[in-house]
Design a protein that fits this description.
The chain is an alpha+beta fold. It has helices spanning 2-20, 46-68, 72-78, 95-104, and strands spanning 79-86, 92-94, 108-121, 127-140, 143-158, 161-171. The chain has a 6-stranded mixed β-sheet, sandwiched between helices.
């Protein structure tokens, strides 16, 4: 059952990202082919996208501060009713399960901070994906945690303002400053094999 829920959640997030945050066809000629992360390619007016990005970064910071204080009311206000959380071990939790866990003390944070935030706003300006790095200490759903994870948050603009609809955490297995080794060109000379003596 957990695999089905995880698959559905992943499909929803992927569909949202594909349909909402991809580069419009008119801009395909300007696709950045470098290994650097692409800038926000949303088609919302630049001023609006920049304002939304600033608002969401502020909300993510506020979410981290209130979560560090185990403020259940702030958590409930910051998330949609159908909020889903996918933890770094692959477990999937509903908003109700998270709230119950926070109220019982099974989920209790000592600290939570975010950095390296990248915000991508959809063309309509009513949805966004935030990817960042979270450093977290405490207990999550009864399991002790002290780690740095990559997070993906899906935000939706509701009648009550921006709310987080989904959050996924993924363990970071390599140092954040490690860079992927670039593959050698196909025609690169190979080192000579040692001569047999």
């Amino acid at each position: 059952m957990k695999r089905i829920i995880l698959s559905i959640t992943t499909l929803i997030v992927a569909t949202f990202m594909f349909t909402s945050c991809g580069a419009p066809a008119a801009n395909n000629a300007a696709v950045n082919n470098s290994n650097k992360p692409a800038a926000n390619t949303a088609t919302a007016p630049a001023a609006d996208a920049a304002a939304i990005e600033a608002d969401l970064k502020k909300l993510v910071t506020e979410y981290a501060a209130s979560t560090s204080k185990n403020d259940v009311a702030a958590y409930e206000k910051a998330t949609t009713d159908n909020f889903m959380f996918v933890s770094n071990d692959g477990s999937v939790y509903t908003k109700a399960q998270r709230v119950d866990s926070m109220k019982s003390g099974a989920t209790k944070y000592d600290s939570l901070t975010y950095d390296d935030l990248n915000v991508r706003v959809n063309a309509e300006g009513n949805g966004a994906v935030v990817i960042g790095k979270a450093t977290v200490k405490g207990t999550n759903m009864g399991k002790p945690i002290d780690e740095t994870v990559r997070v993906t948050q899906v935000w939706s603009k509701t009648k009550d303002g921006w709310k987080m609809a989904s959050l996924q955490a993924t363990n970071i297995t390599a140092k954040a400053d490690d860079k992927k080794a670039e593959p050698a060109p196909a025609n690169a000379a190979k080192p000579a094999a040692p001569a047999n003596k």
